[in-house]
Amino acid sequence: MDDDGHAPESRNPRRRRAFVVLFSALSALATGAAAHAQSVDECLSCHSDDSLTAMRGGREVSAFVDGEAFAASKHADLACVDCHTDFTGLGDGHGDDAQPVDCAGCHDAPPVELAKGVHGGLGGRSKVACASCHQPHTLRRAADALQRCETCHATVVAQQHASLHGQAAARGDALAPTCVTCHGSHAIKPHSDPDARTAVMNVPLLCGQCHREGTEVSLFRDIPQESILENYVDSIHGAGLFEKGLTVTAVCTSCHSAHAILPHTDPRSTINAKNLAGTCMQCHAQIERVHRKVINGELWEKQPHLIPACIDCHQPHKIRKVFYEAGMANRDCLSCHSKPDLAMERDGVRVSLYVDEAAHAASAHADRTCVQCHSEVTPSHERPCDTVRSKVDCSVCHEDQVAQYQRSIHGQLSAKGDPDAPVCLDCHSYHATQRKTSPTSPTFARNVPNLCARCHRAGEKAAVRIHADVPDIVASYADSIHGRGLTESGLVVTATCVNCHSSHGELPPDDPDSTVNRKNLPNTCGQCHHGIAETFATSIHATGEPKDGKQLPVCEDCHSSHSIRRHDLPGFRTQILEQCGHCHEKETESFFETFHGKVSRLGTEGAAKCSDCHGSHGILPPTDPRSTLSRANVVATCGQCHEGSNRQFAGYLTHATHHDRDRYPWLYWAFIFMTTLLIGTLAFALLHTLAWLVRLWLTRDQWRHIKAMARTEGEAKLYRRFNRYQRTLHLLMLLSFFTLALTGMAIKFSYAGWAQVIARLFGGQPTMAVMHRFAAIILIGVFVSHVVGVVRQRRESGKSWKEMLTGPDTILFHPRDLRDLIASIKWFFGIGPRPAYGRYTYWEKFDYFAVFWGVMVIGSTGFVLWFPELLTRILPGWSINVATIVHSDEALLAVGFIFTIHFFNTHFRPDKFPMDPVIFTGRMTLEELQHDKPAEYEELVRRGELEQHLVEPFPKNVEKAFKTFGFIALGIGLTLIGLILYAMLFAYR
What we know:
This protein is mainly α. The protein has 50 helices and nine strands. The strands form four sheets. The protein has a three-stranded antiparallel sheet. The chain starts with 12 loop residues before the first helix and ends with a helix.
């Protein structure tokens, strides 16, 4: 086992035990000594007696073994003789000359480590054996360190029990240290060994495992001091230890003790105010004799022999060399420098030498005298400061900060003599430097952005030299969630410039040591977003391998650097798609082919985005059991939005494409079928339309006078072709179809700008969805109402179904329709007369049954898309993908056919242009009837029924309203066709 009590990964104790057992058995067989192999039960037949004893090393010891405890132990799968190998084959009994068990048979590393440590041989005393700590017959888990160590180290353990650490352990605090935490488990070495954890040189680093900045102890436990390890390293004690190698200098245990560590408020504590002088005097002997008696004009000891607490002057962990005044007091300097008009000329510029005594007294340096900073003064001179030649060296007290500055980009530029480079006094003031915790300090969190803005605001000296990712870094920050949190909410814990770039060690992002370098950024952000950083560290983005030469994403790739926004603000969720698409191009393209992707393009914030399914910071591959998309979790993931999510519903193919025939054959063939149907239908209809158009133009003398008469018709009665019920159904169908077309095509072509405009005009995609479904219900209602009307019409006519459906006026396809089609084609090409069409022509019947087909196909697939959770209880998940293809392409076919072919057949053919109002008025002139439907006209005359179908025309204003409505509908339809063509030809990407 290693020093922390864990088995090395390269070892498998159970496998080794099995090997030992197998080897022992084979050896016994080979030597013929296994005629009788003892079992555990046989051994327990004697050793289960709690009074059984044996002699060991001249001492009588218990030989009792608790059988139940052994059966529940880690060694339960071993036989007694696997460990006590010297008793193998002895039969029913053995003597007292048992040899110590050699645990190295299974656990080779711990005994080797133990032998190297202090427990391997204690000054001639017998070695500490494994059994001393681990109790082999009852071992169930790692040994309780305090309980086992107490056997030999009772005094030390008692101190630890009473200490701050021991009290925390007693409360069950998982962060509380134990003996093993500091001393290790097997390779324990004396503190005199330079390699020991507790060697003087190693003690600060040992304690720093818990007490340095950023550890769980420093973050989640109430510790009065900050930056303990960092401050110690910079102190005179730390410098003595790490720079001079003085092992007699004070380390953590020198002041806090090794085991009896107590808070400073405890009267027993070595660092309690009453005990502190005694603690320090362990090293600093005869303090009263050597200490300066008067400091800043006051007696050091207020009462005789009452030594004050050292920390009154020497801050804990920050003890520095003391700089005493060189025989000068502040009043000596201020006798001149308190005059506001005191100045000098430097490089042709007048520089004030005035020092505001009140400002200095309120500053962080109030307890420092002038000469502690201006150390080149000579008190014996008439003007002591005439020997000052150098600028103040801040590193005398602020060594670490100055070292960071010198390594920073600011320090590098300053070293090169760059006049734009900031130095200490650009941020900290001359004599009125305030602590960063003071609200009036320039370095107070709320004021930091304005401080940095002096150089980095747009147009300032630093901004013009830096090619930033945003035009104005400062303005972008001010508008970010961090900036708003600081300035609007007053949250001084929010991130400012120094939290990300550091206070003194600013480096460009491409520097490997920069806090904002890509490899360091998660740790930088993790200082505040600790939980998120832990989650991200386990994700595929942190642990995966970059592909195609790309880098794995870090915080700024998704959140930007200075313009970080709240995730619940409008636009943030839709921005995710673009961010993920930088690396996942193919997945993003396929996502935008899904419903989620299309409505996201229309600006719908609530639609599922990448992070809703994959997670945001803890993204894992679907093969990982912890992934939100693993088989165990995917149903619940879908269920966040889709109540009723089930296993088959989760089988929806999220990033599937119909272009991949091998992986998605159902999608591929559905697309091929619908594309063939769409192209074939429109191609045939278009050829038919073009041929008809040419023939009508060539025969315009035959219909021009009829069209003119229809326009000038006065009060003459008209033939009623459609009754009110039929016209009403057509109007409802028109309104519902147009609503379906506009809302549906906007989703299908969501990548086009016009689709996004339509979505906004409708009030957004959620409103469009409601209108789309409402229109679908209306259209289905029209379909059902029509079927009911046909049944009623048959009943009122007195005809049988056969007579009605096969008669000359039937709406069903009839052999005559085929003859009319052939005759029409001949007429189109001038090789035959125009056919005598009846009540319903073949193209009208085609339009009629196209509605039946469309309602069934679009309606059925629409219900799958409307209720996917319900219908996937009986359908596979990929049926949603197929339904999407069929629904979308059939809708495109319907829109394309209605707004082109149907419009031409009824309105745009030359003999009806610009519009035939018969579907709105239900009326047409007898001349039109005789020309358009000669067979129907002749049949009505033959039966003498023509008169009963003649009605009065609508008033002119009503006809005008009908035509206005019709023209609006035609305009919308043609505009939509134009937009669709534009999207397919120029906007598709």
